[in-house]
Write a structure and sequence with these properties.
By secondary structure, the protein is α/β, with parallel strands linked by helices. It contains five helices and five strands. It has one domain: Double Stranded RNA Binding Domain (2-Layer Sandwich), CATH 3.30.160. Strands 2-1-3-4-5 form a five-stranded mixed β-sheet, covered by helices on one side.
Length: about 160
Amino acid sequence: MLKVRFALAFLGLAMISPATLQAQAPVAPIPSQILTAKKVFISNTGGGFDARVWSGGPDRIYNEFYAAVKSAGIFEIVPAPGVADLVLDVNVIANPVVWQFKMDILDPKTRIVLWTKYEPLKITVTQKTRDKNFDDTIDKLAGDLKALIAQPGAAVK
């Protein structure tokens, strides 16, 4: 009798599809500051830039990310963190296995990181390809930011 109960319980669990389980999983909210932000300040920490790997100087990551966020048209970029709803900070993380860009979204009042996004960065042999990969990865981060605030159900109620 115990074997029959076990078999029935197992069959019952097997009938629950992974999609059903996934649909019932709670979704953690996106911080409201991110969803309601209109103005951002982009900090220039220049972290991790290596002029031996890419052309340009340490301001390249700041300048290109600034341009990508501006062209995405999702935020007004302001000249000081005191008037911003969010602070965006982008750095390069050099790792022997995978290099990546790291974007932190911070609350300007508390300096608490509200969200972090990483994008892998392909390091190749030729300078031209490395620079193209740099540009493409910056564009991906700006796209990640746009997608974050455009997620279905992300609107603040």
